[in-house]
Amino acid sequence: MEKTFDALLARMQELRDLGGLIGLATWDQETYLPPKAAESRAFQLSTLQGIHHERLVDPRLGELLDWAAGNKGLTDDQRAMARVLTEERNRAVKVPKALVQALAEAQSRGLVAWREARKQNRFAVFKPALERLLILRREQADAYGHDGERYDGLLEGYEPGMRVKRLTPVLGALRDNLIPLVAALQAAPRKVGDFFEGRRFDTETQWRFTLRLLGDMGFDLEAGRQDKSIHPFSSGQHPTDVRLTTDLEEGSLTALFSTLHEGGHGLYEQGFSAAHHRTPLANAPSMGLHESQSRMWENLVGRGRPFWTHYFPALREAFPQALAGVELDTFHSAINRVTPSFIRVEADEVTYNLHIVLRYELELLLIRDALPLDELPAAWNERMRRFLGVTPPDDTQGVLQDIHWAWGEFGYFPTYALGNLYAASLYRAAQRAVPQLEEGFARGELKPLRDWLRTHVHSEGHRQPAEELVRKVTGQGLTDVDFLAYLKSKFGALYGLSL
Amino acid sequence: MEKTFDALLARMQELRDLGGLIGLATWDQETYLPPKAAESRAFQLSTLQGIHHERLVDPRLGELLDWAAGNKGLTDDQRAMARVLTEERNRAVKVPKALVQALAEAQSRGLVAWREARKQNRFAVFKPALERLLILRREQADAYGHDGERYDGLLEGYEPGMRVKRLTPVLGALRDNLIPLVAALQAAPRKVGDFFEGRRFDTETQWRFTLRLLGDMGFDLEAGRQDKSIHPFSSGQHPTDVRLTTDLEEGSLTALFSTLHEGGHGLYEQGFSAAHHRTPLANAPSMGLHESQSRMWENLVGRGRPFWTHYFPALREAFPQALAGVELDTFHSAINRVTPSFIRVEADEVTYNLHIVLRYELELLLIRDALPLDELPAAWNERMRRFLGVTPPDDTQGVLQDIHWAWGEFGYFPTYALGNLYAASLYRAAQRAVPQLEEGFARGELKPLRDWLRTHVHSEGHRQPAEELVRKVTGQGLTDVDFLAYLKSKFGALYGLSL
């Protein structure tokens, strides 16, 4: 076999093309697939994923990667490409085929059992399937390898380089800071009511507004598109083909925030360097860093006063009846209302991370086999009381609310919190670097932020681990300092408190 | 390697899944792909086609097929599956990789040169690329093998089992019958003017009408969908996922006929037997037979008086202004106006096949290397005069009008004529078999025809060659008798002639 970088590159490109096609088939499944085609699409996706796996674990790819690892003549980028693919390949090689198949089956059963458990509103119905998934995931973590902390083996798949040892103190401190903050905001004399109750927003008008926002953010609608789906998501087949979805509801404006969120992911995907296209570098280094981009646009930009200084007049014009007589201040408070609630996906910026810490603590115990499954619902509810002061009335509004565990995803939740922390630190760096950033927002100029992110974050791709990149850009690694300062400043002002 | 039918079936299923994904990526390319993603999609498609080819020519698949060919214990369907795949595989194996690559490159260059030639309106600009394509296609035909008639080697790829020896006399007789028929209709005292000139049909209303037609035909919109594209096409990813497109123009009602045409293809794809899904039998035995279904619904049903007896009142209600005061007879004549014209895709039912015979005669000469390319435009125009009495004013309206040769497709055109002939014969058999078929159309009952086709044609899949299936269903093989009888009866009545 010829050992050249071109030969290796051809294999990288083939893998990326297959990955893009998996993305397309999945996107189509959630948008345009005819209902009766669910089974045939499952077969097609399974075939495609099987071929992707087969190409990835191909011993000849391993030989090429070994050759590249020992080759001093490669450029920095070439070495980074080989390193990232080697890491991905090593993980794929370590898991025996029987375990891959057992997991796929357990995932299907997990979803079915979870749906049934939600219908019956009884965790016990889901328990056996969850037990099986945990056994297999622990086995998988052992196959990946770890230094005694199994969870690290799983976390690595979502947040390469992150470890429990580093994550637990950060999330623990975050929790200990957020609990009193939530309590203080709840006790504040200034109250924010439920603004959206009874208001109606025409969905076609919302749709046009979301497209305007995407354009203003600098999302290239000639290198991507937006469609509708039940759950919003983003999917990058290639940096020239980035697809977002949003979910339109007449009773709220969540579509706007979904679009800003998915648009943040989309800008990341569109922003990879052309030199990295069809290579392992055209990727975020971690899920957490990807999430930092969506959370930044959704919350730090899109729930900010400067943003709405510009957009609120247009919004009121778009919805003259629903927003008749509403002032900017009222609207800005309404979209930043802090309320401890049962459901993570409906949570505000302040309480959200407590939902995440709760899940992190529990799944860490589960993977360590240190929490009997029978006690899981009680452990969930006990933390809900301790963190947020509320008790879920039933399992569906408690331990059964998320699809992640039903699908056997353990290690994914903390990336949401990392996204929030990284978002605040990167945003702070952008504020320092870009003159009059928020003054620009107030004039509808969003692109300077996109341009700064493109230069400092997106175009880097997966050249270095997430935390290393963040340290390079902000001068510090993972920290909750910027995030907490942001929350205190913003919500202190909104609730009339000095925090 | 384990030699069982299940092992063979798994490979068949993988190939069909890959084929379905190629279909999806191509459908997406023509409907929703962002404009800047054209290059990345081309890479993805090329990767996928490469893997499909690699799996098809895999020697282990060859061994399994050899094993199946000698195995008496297989069912009829299993033997048919193995036979169809063996034929496909044998063709793929015979073409050297270098020729495949040379052809792919020549096709790309062909398209570019053809577009430029159309822009400049000069055949000479396209000539060198066409020359190259012809050389490579002749080489490919020789690789496939033939009995002295190279064209047969290419024809086999579109119309398995058909040969020049059989086709030439049928198309020659058709031509000799059609030329005087066209002349007679042109000379008829009753004239039909250009009905659509100046009328406007709201495209959203047209869209709704096309969906109603699809539903009435029995096209399952839960196992398929319709979208918009520049050129209408149909694409079957799987019998549960059949996608049609149509093209809406305000100045005409062509979308209705496009939908009936593509819907005819779509019913075929949805009608394959569930026992054949994901196997080589879930396929039409030839392009001509597939086309018979689209032409039947577009023309024999959709331009017929019974059909419009039911639908014209609804159409007039949908377009009250454009169709104010228009009677059924006027409309029925208008959509059946016979006019010799330069452009094939705009041709009526009577003149259409003369466009096809012209192309067949020319490409047969070209593949035989019996017509110097310099003489091609003149040979085209001479036949246009002889067949239709009109002379194209320039190359763009003559020899440069179709994309097929630009893409190196020689052998495809005759399948359009075969589709028309098979359609008439199958329709006549349906009329004999289904009581009051057209009386039902006049009440909007289209499904009895679909059901008959499903039972006798669609569900057969690729169990036997096209002509064998037609003979089984109609009692006779390929013939122009039913088609000519249909034309004479229909257009005689419309033009007040006894033909």
Proportion of residues in extended strands of chain A = under 5%
Give the total of domains of chain A. Answer: 2
Q: What is the gyration radius of chain A calculated from CA atoms?
A: 23 Å
Count of β-strands of chain A: 3
CATH architecture of the largest domain in chain A: Orthogonal Bundle
Strand order of the largest sheet of chain A: 1-3-2
Question: Which pair has the most extensive contact?
Answer: A-B, 38 and 38 residues
- Pairing-aware structural class of the strands and helices of chain A? mainly alpha
Look at the structure and give the mean pLDDT of chain A.
97
The CATH first-level class of the largest domain in chain A comes to Mainly Alpha
Overall shape of chain A? globular
Tell me the series of helices and strands of chain A, N- to C-terminal: HHHHHHHHHEEEHHHHHHHHHHH
Low-confidence stretches of chain A: none
Largest sheet of chain A: 3 strands, mixed
Estimate the helix proportion of chain A, in percent: 55-70%
Oligomer: homodimer
